[in-house]
């Protein structure tokens, strides 16, 4: 197919430009619905006159509906988006990017979705869908599934298709709570995922932002101990990959510690450990939930992150576990490949 696409691009390059533009507009309407023309124009940074012309085309084709609340996608429009996905992947060379990234990171598998989460919010829904589809392939009866918190993991849980068959699985939060957003707390994310998977769940009532002394005393609680023992039996882990500075701030670390992390070249955080670009530990702190030693032993691990600004964090975390699977986006992928070419010694 690639050869045919290359020939077509040489002969009618404008058709590919128009196709990608219309695909992106439809994806944004689907993700942001209901949305008005002006808001969509601002979101896409495209002139309102151009948006108006495309909207009229979509309406005439039956891909969208328009009412006082704004534009919404129709079932026919959703079919077009889904049907075009593989072709858009081919146009943008996504499958080639997947192979190139997998080879440069030396990990088990890479799944890439088009776009850059830093600039296009709808990419989060695509990352979530790709992750949930992958999970459905890996989940087995009686699995214990661990999931971290955060915006990306919340989207994964929300985007999982409702299951009808009970597989007797248990979902647990892989870590203690972080930050102030309730909907992205690990307990809430685990409960939501369990609901979608028609499984059971256990909650870990402890925060990762507590002082080391308080955290140590909490770990002695019999109920917490029971949950921790269950967490150590996780055989499928889904976790978000965070930038070191962002995670340090979410953990409310003292400013001098954050500055020290940056000075030491920390670019990523996982399970209480901070890593530099080479995957070397620069700082360690006690956390609750899955520990780094547990992470290494888990048979099925899916790391998830999107956006070019996460490139260094993804690059570093990929050094830690070569049998992990990465779900990311085009923006992060292209940035990681540039990073790899400039840092082959790492």
UniProtKB/TrEMBL annotation:
Matching SUPFAM superfamilies: NagB/RpiA/CoA transferase-like (SSF100950), Winged helix' DNA-binding domain (SSF46785)
Keywords for this protein: DNA-binding, Transcription, Transcription regulation
Domain called CggR N-terminal DNA binding: residue spans: 19-88
Family annotation (Pfam families): CggR_N, Sugar-bind
InterPro entries: CggR_N, NagB/RpiA_transferase-like, SorC_transcr_regulators, Sugar-bd_dom_put, WH-like_DNA-bd_sf, WH_DNA-bd_sf
The keyword Oxidoreductase belongs to this UniProt entry's keyword annotation: no
GO molecular function: carbohydrate binding; DNA binding
Domain Sugar-binding, residue spans: 92-338
Family of the protein in this entry: Belongs to the SorC transcriptional regulatory family.
Protein name: Sugar-binding transcriptional regulator
